[in-house]
């Protein structure tokens, strides 16, 4: 694809607004079904995939969790993922920030696997958002990835983080909860 401007990508790939933030289109949904070990053996497609695009006008994704494993493969751009793994009862969760990009020497990754039952959110890098001033720079600021979900995605296996989930995760660590609260579904960040 010769052009990577946001407007051209949205049109060429047939992307639509994603309820989690950014844009997406389903690129594959396997016809074969299997019992999902993550969903009480309910039947799920073998795998599904989407293009997922974050842009200057929709630069954030909200915290959510999938029961299935999700592989993220970078096409171009840079994106930061915040991953929160719930800790054992009474202990703090682990928080990992991963930048997907092409600079391996700086620790950036071209592929990211997110395990089952891990909270995640995505965002363009704030430093890059602030540098995009002109209309042309803003239209060129984006990150395109493919997400592959195994077993396949089903809304029944998806969950948005609620205020209660956030407070339960960070019980006794209110500062962390405050930092993450703007990225809850319904907070207005993706509306």
Automatic annotation (TrEMBL):
Range of residues in the leader sequence: none
Alphabetized InterPro entries for the sequence: Cupin_DUF985, RmlC-like_jellyroll, RmlC_Cupin_sf, YML079W-like
Name of the protein this chain belongs to: RmlC-like cupin domain-containing protein
DUF985 domain sequence ranges: 8-160
Top-level lineage group: Eukaryota
Source organism of this protein record: Crepidotus variabilis
One Pfam assignment: Cupin_5
């Amino acid at each position: 694809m010769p052009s990577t401007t946001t407007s051209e990508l949205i049109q060429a790939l047939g992307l639509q607004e994603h309820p989690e933030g950014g844009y997406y289109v389903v690129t594959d949904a396997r016809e074969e079904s299997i019992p999902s070990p993550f969903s009480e053996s309910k039947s799920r497609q073998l795998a599904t995939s989407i293009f997922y695009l974050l842009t200057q006008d929709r630069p954030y994704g909200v915290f959510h969790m999938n029961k299935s494993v999700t592989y993220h493969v970078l096409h171009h751009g840079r994106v930061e993922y915040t991953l929160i793994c719930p800790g054992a009862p009474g202990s703090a969760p682990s928080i990992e920030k991963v930048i997907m990009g092409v600079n391996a020497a700086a620790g950036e990754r071209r592929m990211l696997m997110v395990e089952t039952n891990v909270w995640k959110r995505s965002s363009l890098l704030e430093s890059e958002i602030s540098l995009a001033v002109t209309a042309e720079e803003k239209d060129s600021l984006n990150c395109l990835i493919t997400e592959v979900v195994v077993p396949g995605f089903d809304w029944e296996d998806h969950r948005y983080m609620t205020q209660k989930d956030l407070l339960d995760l960070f019980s006794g660590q209110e500062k962390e909860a405050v930092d993450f609260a703007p990225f809850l579904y319904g907070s207005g960040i993706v509306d």
